[in-house]
Write a structure and sequence with these properties.
Elements: H1 11-24, E1 27-34, E2 38-48, E3 53-58, H2 62-69, E4 72-76, E5 82-94, H3 100-110, E6 121-135, E7 144-147, E8 150-151
Antiparallel strand pairs: 1-2, 1-4, 2-3, 3-6, 4-5, 5-6, 6-7, 7-8
Length: 153
């Protein structure tokens, strides 16, 4: 791996950069698992509300089935050099029971409102318990920037 020129960021810088990316990024990889069917990974649009990531998927999707059975999930932003991984538990909201503010913000970001579509959709909210962030090998040490739901200094 080429690491020339990488300047190791302090934890506060990593947190700032991570929060900025969570607000501006559109896609997140969602990794789920089912006790009988094993792991599943899919990219979804997401909204960061300042505390949690909100995604939406068909209520009959593998992702929806998995988070109902096993709520522990991992989310990752789609850059393999500027890595951001979030772990937490999924909380599920059928499209007609999702909090209005979250649904409106999601629709505003993407120009798509699942609540008015045919078929049922499931909103998935993940409040991270652990966040890891690093850019290349020089930042592997100290990559945990949130532990037990608290940002580290």
């Amino acid at each position: 791996m080429e690491t020339t020129g990488i300047v190791r960021r302090r934890t506060a810088e990593r947190r700032r950069d991570t929060l900025e990316r969570l607000v501006t990024e559109r896609d997140v990889w969602v990794s789920t698992a089912h006790p009988d069917h094993g792991p599943h990974q899919v990219p979804l649009w997401f909204l960061w509300d300042g505390r949690a990531a909100w995604m939406c998927t068909s209520a009959t999707s593998v992702t929806a089935r998995n988070v109902r059975e096993e709520p522990r999930v991992r989310l990752s932003l789609p850059d393999t050099f500027d890595v951001v991984l979030l772990q937490g538990e999924a909380e599920c909201f059928p499209d007609q029971e999702v909090p209005g503010g979250a649904a409106e913000a999601f629709a505003g970001k993407f120009g798509w409102d699942p609540r008015v579509e045919e078929g049922s959709f499931l909103y998935v909210r993940v409040v991270p318990r652990t966040v890891r962030a690093w850019r290349g090998e020089p930042e592997l040490r100290g990559r945990v920037i949130m532990r037990d739901g608290k940002w580290l200094e």
